[in-house]
Amino acid sequence: MRTSWCILFESIRKEIFNMATIKFSHDTVVFNSHFNMNSFLESVDSFLKTMPDCRPKGVAEQIRPKCIVIYFPIEFPPKRILPVVLNTDDAGSYRSSTPLHLVWPHRWEHDKGPDEFCTLLLKLLEEKVAFVVSILGSHTNDIPVVLEETISKLGSRVLHRGPVSKEEYWCILMKAHVVVSTAKHEFFGVAMLEASYCGCYPLCPNRLVYPEIFPKECLYNTDQQLFRRVKNFSHKPESARIAAAELQMCYEKYSWKNLQSSFSDLLNPSSD
Fold first, then answer.
1. From 188's CA, which of 38, 70, 92, 268 has a CA 20 to 30 Å away?
2. Over 60: is that where the pLDDT of 47 sits?
3. pTM (predicted TM-score)
4. Is 128 exposed, middle or buried (0-12, 13-18, 19+ CB in 10 A)?
C-alpha cells in the first residue's frame, strides 16, 4: 500500500509540474470555475517546492494575470420540464402517489463519495423512508464494493443503475425529485447542473465548487444534515421539484449556446 501511494504521489506531482509549466508558458490560462483557478493558484508554489530541482519561484503571481474563467459549456435539453402545481389536502400537504426519487448521476469512483451516498441510502432504508433511486454514471469493471452491496440490499428500490442513453438520461432527470452529490473532488459538476436544470432539487456538500454555483439553501455541512433534508422531502416528494423551480439559478451562463462566443474569441483572437 505504501508503494502504491508513493507511485500515485509521484504521478500527481509530475502532472501538476507539467500543468504549471504549460500555464507558465502560455498567454492565456483558462479554468472552468473560480474554485478551480483559485485552488490551483493557492497551491502551485508550495507544491513546486517539493520538486527535487527546477523549482521556479513566484509562479502563481506570474500566472495570475493570464488567468480567466470560462465555465464548462453544457448542452441542456431543448425543453425544460417544470412541475405542475398539485392539489393539496385540507392540511395543505401535497398529495403524491410516488415515493421520493433520488438521483446520483456520477462516475462510480471513490472521489465522488460512493461510501457517503450508500450510507445515506442504507440509513433511509433502516428508518423505513419511502424512496427509490437511480444510480447513474459511467463505471469500469472495478466497481466500488460498497455500491455493489448497497444496490443488492436495496433491491427493487433501484430503478436504474449505470449508464443509460442520453434520451433516457434526460427522461429520468425530468421525473426524479432530488439529485445528490457526495463528491470529495469536483471542479465544476456538470451532472448536478444538468439534473437541477431538469427540475431536480440539488443537495450538495458545502465545499469544492458547489458554493460558487448553487444557492446556500442547496448546501449541506454534515451527513446528518443531508439525511434530514432527504427525509423531509420524502414526506412530500413533489415539493422538491416545486422548490427547485423557485431556486435563483441562472442556467444560461453555463449553456453552450451562451458560451460558444467566448470559446470562439479565445480560440480565434482577432488581430489588432
1. 268
2. yes
3. 0.84
4. exposed
